[in-house]
Fold:
Amino acid sequence: MVLDGDFIRVGSHPSNDLVLADRAVSRFHCILERVRSTFRLTDVGSRNGTYIAGVRVRDADAVLPECRIELGESVVRIRDADAVAETEIARAPSFGALQGLSVPMRRLFPILERVAKSAPDVLIEGENGTGKEVIATELVQRSARANKPLVIVDCGAISPSLIESELFGHVRGSFTGASRDRAGAFEEADGGTVFLDEIGELPLEMQPKLLRALASREVRRLGEGRVRKVDIRVIAATNRRLEREVNSGRFREDLYYRLSVLTVRVPPLRERKEDIGLLVQCFLNELGAIDKADLFPPEVIEDMKRYDWPGNVRELRNYVERRVVLG
Structure:
């Protein structure tokens, strides 16, 4: 089988890129991602595990072509095939506020252009600090809803007891402290976009209610019988592997499919280190400190490229600002 792409989901569910008819293989079993000349293998909480050369692995960062991967009673070997089509790569080193000269970013920009012009809901996946909210904002600004409201809800920062009210609103007296009627995020964004940040943190008991709202585009305020129609686009973001959350029972499978009509995956900074010099210049401009560029000569930039930046672009920006302030 020939599969085109740098991100391949493997499992028994028909939605995977590589579907294995093996009862010992989980619905979402593992993910293969190309990283330059090798592959990264991530087991997303499979029931029976993923093995390389007889050793069970959860994450393997440098899987070479022709490696033997064992899943359940199946064996998968990967190898590079001759490209059947040239991957679209952007010429411009930016997508609005998103900057990058590296191949992963220049492959991402054309995808974002197409996603911005489309209507379905979007799921943005990426580690903390990779710029998921920046991407969401740029998608909105290039969409048909650019002049309509954008309402941001951080699902990880709201008390589980208040999340339903935050999303759908409430009427006076519906719970202790509800002193007046209040519209939720879905109503406030009517005609525009709701950005659900850290959707993987949404409590399990709240997920069916969100699923119904997404399916029907209707909301009901807490304590009220009236149903209100809303016209919104939903952009969700997560730093979690939702496939792993589905396997573990912490995230509903049907909600995952509803949210991931279109999926955008943002590479971490360690996979695009050639962008560090460009990003440093951008941050210096933002800080009004372009005269401090001598703090980052080529040898310093090269040294920075040897660090993995677990906090990603956010950590890099903080480092640049700290160096500018402290010299």
The radius of gyration is 22 Å. DSSP finds ten helices and 20 strands in the chain. The CA atoms of residues 149 and 194 lie 8 Å apart.
